[in-house]
Amino acid sequence: MRNEKERGIARIISAIAVLTACALPAAAWGIDIGAPAGWRRAGPAELALAWRGTDPLRYTVVLGDFDGNGSDDEAQLLVSDRLNRSGLFVFLRQADGTHRRHALGSDFHRSLTPAMGIRKLPPGVYTTACGKGYFDCGPKRSKEISARHTVIEFFKFESSSAYYYWDRSKKKFAEAWIVD
Questions:
Q1: pTM
Q2: Per-residue b/e over 96-132, b at no fewer than 16 CB within 10 Å?
Q3: Fewest C-beta in 10 Å: which of 57, 78, 124, 141?
Q4: Four-CA torsion 120, 121, 123, 129, nearest 10 degrees
Q5: What pLDDT digit, counting tens, does each position of 140-164 carry?
Q6: How far apart are CA 86 and CA 77, in angstroms?
């Protein structure tokens, strides 16, 4: 009986967290850049799973200096009803105050949105999936990455993850599968 009561309380707390997160003013979500045309932030039904309750923004927004220019940038997990897709978008703040958009990992089906999330990781050296022995690295994959700036982890809850980090020499984001 106690377990049922605890589960009921946990469901109520989770529902309150979802409603609170969805009711937050835009500024509380981050920079308030706005989603690209045809894309939107995830809604209450997509954010209802209990695991999301451990993050105030439900693992849908990350702020950090991703490209090392000293300005706050923003990553967002967004949904396109028209395309039936969800994806990760990064908005890099430019010197003139505008934001340059990068679409990363925007090729997964919208039905996966409840299980997908993003989180911020510090700069550092990370062992990749092939470096951990999940598969052969081959000539084009590295056993580890060295990120000089904030890293974005794009993950499926209790499954795989990819790290996105700024490659200064190529002036674009690089991707590394981590799978933990």
A1: 0.80
A2: eeebeebebbbebebeebbebbbeebebeebebbbbe
A3: 124
A4: -130
A5: 888 999 999 999 999 999 998 999 9
A6: 7
